[in-house]
Amino acid sequence: MTVLVNLIVALGMLYAVPAGLRLIDPARLGTAARLWPWAAAPGALSPWLPRGTAATVLAALYAAAALALLGAAGARLRRRPGRSGGRRLPEPSEVAVLTALASPSVAAVALVAERAGYRLFGFDLDVLALTVPHFHFAGFTAALVAGLVCRSASGDHRARWAAYSVPGGTLLVLAGYFVDDWAELLGAVVLTAGMWTVALVTWRELRAAAPDRTSGALLASSAAVLVATMLLALWWAAGEATGIVHPTLTWMAATHGLGNALGFALCSLLAWRRLGAGRAPDARPAPART
């Protein structure tokens, strides 16, 4: 499981985050996206080393970049003006984007603690290790895609609901770590409902409107994979809460984790990159050439 999780973490750090930053805001976050692999490389290397000082320092370098991204989320939130110059609540697509920008910091803090061998908040080191890929994919990528879907299907109430429920479910799962397995199950239910809604809108609306077959196939694959991977997430969370037979963490990493990383996240990001940043939640279309 360790090798597989490390590879998934590397994919999240080295590709998912910088690709997502370009989709969120190419103008303001373009430099961060270009520099991100340099900050992510120490973080991606850290899990391959034995726990100790060297691994912790590498993880801390990544954490510094992730916390800077959290600061960018705060600055982005402060820039949201109200209709008369005051402040207003962010739109659902913006809530999803802000969640995406904040998620790597949660993953990075967990990585630093796990590499140091420190049971942060009393959590087992295996739980901390799995928190890292979870908040790169269920946190960053899933929230980002929910925001992109909402932006592209802004008139669809299902897309708006998904843009709220995916971040909400992610936060509930995080809260469940501190409460109990039943709270985590509630988070899994909300997150699954949101992700299945993302899949539904992607399949029925965006796939059909894709400008080429490759983009359509990537969108279709990402939507189809979510049906299976999130069902596994529900099964695991229900098993932890009720004691029914459920997959082991190793099996979940090989199925749910790998499926979400490759089948959902990678296909989604490649598809949205082909569609262009013009459909990103806060993107503005480029001026027409004359």
Beta-strand residue percentage = under 5%
Cα shape: globular
Helical percentage? over 70%
| Mean pLDDT level | 89
Classify the fold: give the CATH topology. Answer: Rhopdopsin 7-helix transmembrane proteins
How far apart are the termini? 55 Å
The CATH class is identified as: Mainly Alpha
Strand-pairing-aware structural class: mainly alpha
Low-confidence stretches: 277-290
Oligomer: single chain
Radius of gyration: 18 Å
User: What about the largest sheet?
Assistant: none
Tell me the number of structural domains: 1
Q: How many extended strands?
A: 0
What's the architecture, going by CATH? Up-down Bundle
Number of helices: 9
| Element pattern in H and E | HHHHHHHHH
InterPro entries: YndJ-like (IPR025450)
Pfam families: YndJ
Protein name: YndJ family protein
Keywords: Membrane, Transmembrane, Transmembrane helix
